[in-house]
């Protein structure tokens, strides 16, 4: 039976201006076979099912996609852009603001659609496009106030009045009124007053936040760490003790302001169990050496039987944190959980079928 572990990335599909939200979201995973080796450079068939309220809830949407893995077994799919199953509701009809939603993933490595294997169901924790709408950009800064107007120039002098016409002559009766004297010429206009001094420039308003068109990506940091060596743990156990760091699965992140931080840890393990014995372990996400308080743990049990000796299995843990500015170190650790049983190898280095990974995404607020 073929298996693969999931390293999921929910990426924002950026639209122009205030366009409608994209009807899809990205999903990334690494496909591995039963020995833990990547299924490299091969066409596989993936079936995605969005379920309502719980992992076994009613089907809100279902589709199938053909994907090609790269040399590391990695493939990326846009959920919502595949071929909907017969009778499936439309992807655009999903009410993301209702109850919680779960994503079920099935894989057919033959690529024929006749041998799907259930890879598990996980809750979708957030909708990145809604986060972007809550914290999106605006327009530029306001224009500064206009400076005061300069004083008016001095008025020019009034022109001289023209001379009065001469009186008419003759005795006796009053002579006719002499013609009106010629009007005096207009006085020369005074020279224009000098321009007033320019008013002081108003204070420049503060720069507004960056607008949505052509802005930077919502995800300003996405980093990946891979396992570098195997960690062997075993009895005495019983849980409650400290977690031992898995080699290579640790990295530091510096936040410049309040941010959401999504951490995904995945990998494989192999039991030393033989003759019907078992192994039990858990994997946890640590912040500055302490187990995170908001989930981030995965518990597994490996049991030997007559058909499979020293069996493999996969682990997966995820958490979402709200943090302020500062530098944080995140790591993955493991501890043995049973009082008895057999040792177990956790993760491994490059080229190992057990190699694990830790993906950290930072979403500025």
Task: Please tag this protein with its features.
single chain, 365 residues, mainly beta, Immunoglobulin-like, Jelly Rolls, 2 domains, 6-stranded antiparallel β-sheet, 1 helix, elongated, disordered N terminus
The CATH topology of the largest domain corresponds to: Jelly Rolls
Q: Give the domain tally.
A: 2
- Number of E-type strands: 19
Q: What's the helical proportion of residues?
A: under 10%
Shape: elongated
The biggest beta sheet is recorded as: 6 strands, antiparallel
Strand portion, in percent?
35-45%
| CATH class type of the largest domain | Mainly Beta
Termini separation (Å)? Answer: 43 Å
**CATH architecture descriptor name of the largest domain:** Sandwich
Radius of gyration, whole Å: 39 Å
Number of helices: 1
Low-confidence spans: 1-19, 131-144, 211-218
Describe the structure.
The protein is an all-beta fold. It folds into two domains: 1-126, Immunoglobulin-like (Sandwich), CATH 2.60.40; 219-365, Jelly Rolls, CATH 2.60.120.1340. The protein is built from one helix and 19 strands. Strands 9, 10, 12, 16, 18 and 19 form a six-stranded antiparallel β-sheet that branches. A five-stranded antiparallel β-sheet has the order 6-4-3-7-8, with no helix packed on it. β3 (43-52) and β4 (59-68) form a beta hairpin. The radius of gyration is 39 Å and the shape is elongated. Residues 1-19, 131-144 and 211-218 have low confidence and may be disordered.
